[in-house]
């Protein structure tokens, strides 16, 4: 089956459980006003590479506030979370280095490993012992890389154990917190903060500004010396135009709103739990959400896409993951929670998913 693009109208009637706007901020008036204000003041584009003309005072402000919020010494904003992952892995994974990568990692981390000149070892999902074995067998510099919240099933990586394994081996830990920022940790400070790892000298995090912060862009967070190294070595920073001012302004507006409304992350987690409870009660094979992502197992790839299509016909947008996008060969629907969903929305969403389920999607009664 070939993929196709479906332009979304501005006033789509679909109930959206497919996007990543976890805190419901992408269209929040304050965030939109911040984006608009940034475009009016700084222009539609950043005009150049971050190293030439593409670093405005707004970028510097966003970096300072993001680093402080997440508990890291410094931050570097890039054009996307994808570019942030490539930046971190290619700049830190030099020749002679070993990168140990979780088998469930996001495609952008996989691509970062491919582009880095380092040797790469892929280890079984969420298995600190497998990381330890690889790291202890490598004599030179090394780093371990993992999603904090895995993007398909929404489970959390064993970050404390991974950090202990890395520290014992003298390796750095790179954590992609795309799905944790704004959802986990006190007030949404993210998964490294929740695990007590933010600001540690051997921990680097990457985030996206496009999910909980409702905007666009990405960032690497870490010790100031690491960020300085990235400025000099990360090709996705050096050879890419700086993030558009509207995106930087929108993300900064969202971050300030999140600081003022720290109850939003708890609400999105409660929505995820409520959705899980309803789907499990309907007999579906559904993952228990550690953050905002829930996946519902489908019997086969064709049935998964037909199921997602039936949901859409009934007014509900859900994601659909099938092999080869998922290396474990399991097809599933992927549902995302949003802080602004009501209990009635959850009833509607779960009712639609259950009603349209193919035979074989339910546990035997
Ligand atoms: C785990 C993870 N990392 C990185 C990214 C890339 O972020 P961006 O969309 O900002 O490029 C995504 C999703 O888009 C993601 O799910």
UniProtKB/TrEMBL annotation:
Recorded GO MF terms: 8-amino-7-oxononanoate synthase activity
Copy the pathway line from the protein's UniProt record. Cofactor biosynthesis; biotin biosynthesis
Per UniProt, residues of the Aminotransferase class I/classII large domain are: 14-351
Principal EC category: transferase
Under Enzyme Commission nomenclature, its number is 2.3.1.47
Q: Does the keyword Lipoprotein apply?
A: no
User: Which PROSITE patterns does the annotation name?
Assistant: AA_TRANSFER_CLASS_2
Is Zinc-finger found in the keyword set? no
For activity, the cofactor(s) needed are: pyridoxal 5'-phosphate
Q: What's its catalytic activity?
A: 6-carboxyhexanoyl-[ACP] + L-alanine + H(+) = (8S)-8-amino-7-oxononanoate + holo-[ACP] + CO2
SUPFAM superfamilies attached to this UniProt entry? PLP-dependent transferases
UniProtKB keywords = Acyltransferase, Biotin biosynthesis, Pyridoxal phosphate, Transferase
- Enumerate the Gene3D superfamilies for this protein: Aspartate Aminotransferase, domain 1, Type I PLP-dependent aspartate aminotransferase-like (Major domain)
InterPro entries (alphabetical): Aminotrans_II_pyridoxalP_BS, Aminotransferase_I/II_large, AON_synthase_class-II, PyrdxlP-dep_Trfase, PyrdxlP-dep_Trfase_major, PyrdxlP-dep_Trfase_small
Quaternary structure and interacting proteins, as annotated: Homodimer.
Q: Which family does the record claim for this protein?
A: Belongs to the class-II pyridoxal-phosphate-dependent aminotransferase family. BioF subfamily.
Task: Give the protein name, as stated in the record.
Answer: 8-amino-7-oxononanoate synthase
Q: Recall the taxonomic lineage recorded for the source organism.
A: Bacteria, Bacillati, Actinomycetota, Actinomycetes, Kitasatosporales
